[in-house]
Amino acid sequence: MSDDSGVRLDVLKVDGGATVNDLLMQMQADLLGVPVVRPVVSETTALGAAYAAGLAAGVWNDLETLARQWRADRRWEPRWSADQRDDAYRRWRKAVERSVGWVDV
User: Fold this and answer.
1) CA distance 85 to 30
2) pLDDT at 26
3) Burial annotation 35-72 (CB, 10 A radius, 16+ → b, else e)
4) How far is CA 6 from CA 13, 41, 81, 90, in A?
5) For 101-105, which contacts have Cβ atoms below 8 Å and span 24 or more sequence positions?
6) Paired sense of beta strands 72-76 and 36-39, if any
């Protein structure tokens, strides 16, 4: 993603139901090599709708005010070296290659 966009990922902010899985979040940090941060409110789709309504109704003055509402619940730091990440990616690609054609459609 960074190669395609030219934008460096410094931290991955996550949301949704899967974020309750601490192992999954640690794996994301290890595989990406960047910290992963889960917010206090993990269901941000509903929160975003509420924020949009609040902006329209004048509850909040601007987007900057809303941005200050965001709070981190937990942060996972990467523990793998670059070599470990490269090896895991190589093995994943190998597993994908082996699975191609597994089922006849």
Assistant:
1) 7
2) 98
3) bbbbbeeeebeebeeebeeeeeeeebeeeeebeeeeee
4) 19, 30, 22, 22
5) none
6) antiparallel
pLDDT at position 63 is 93
Structure-token pair, residue 14: 């996550």
Q: What span, in angstroms and rounded, lies between the C-alpha atoms of 40 and 43?
A: 9
pLDDT value of residue 31:
95
**For residue 33, what are its two tokens?**
């090599």
- What is the reported pTM? 0.81
What is the block-wise mean pLDDT of the chain (105 residues), using blocks of 10 residues? 89 94 97 96 88 94 91 97 96 94 83
Q: What is the 3-state secondary structure (H, E, C) of the chain?
A: CHHHHCCCCCCEECCCHHHHCHHHHHHHHHHHCCCEEEECCCCHHHHHHHHHHHHHHCCCCCHHHHHCCCCEEEEECCCCCHHHHHHHHHHHHHHHHHHCCCCCC
